[in-house]
Amino acid sequence: xxxxxxxxxxxxxxxxxxxxxxxxxxxxxxxxxxxxxxxxxxxxxxxxxxxxxxxxxxxxxxxxxxxxxxxxxxxxxxxxxxxxxxxxxxxxxxxxxxxxxxxxxxxxxxxxxxxxxxxxxxxxxxxxxxxxxxxxxxxxxxxxxxxxxxxxxxxxxxxxxxxxxxxxxxxxxxxxxxxxxxxxxxxxxxxxxxxxxxxxxxxxxxxxxxxxxxxxxxxxxxxxxxxxxxxxxxxxxxxxxxx
Length: 243
Hints:
By secondary structure, the protein is an alpha+beta fold. It has five helices and ten strands, in the order E-H-H-E-E-E-E-H-E-H-H-E-E-E-E. The radius of gyration is 18 Å and the shape is globular.
């Protein structure tokens, strides 16, 4: 089996991406994972101009991020990202997170779809410019992305796609859903335990300035379910596991 096509970068764990216990927030982990994915695509010529010219863009459908050890402030992490060719219109991208000794301590498994920017429909047959992407045929890493429903939920407040949380697409950036989900949990639990694992399913975009309602429920002693809803339509669902 040929070696997977990879792209590697190093990142420092900055204070502003960590929690009150100096541990990397899940949203912070997703932001560096998003950055290396963007940098890799830029190197391949998949720039904003390329997407505009081909009237298509990648949108994130779901992901999972899991740590065996949550990184601390000041650590230098090496990220290795591996993209996979489309399977049933879904593009898989996995990013391995290594510590300073080269040990794998985390993994981000994300699934993307290519969408026509004019019709907003998923492209089952990508434009010719996307057909020859140098992605690997098979990436041998995966995480469970299932998000079961709890027996009951309770209201967990509201959130809004504020200016500082939105991206160039003018909607809530996908990494900030992790922040929203964390903020929906009881503070007393997060004060003593970090989020070791998160799975997110993205159902519908939240445009800039729009608000949405949150609900939460326990799945077990260490695991929470969080979901958002806007106008009677589900925005996202999350499953968070604490240390």
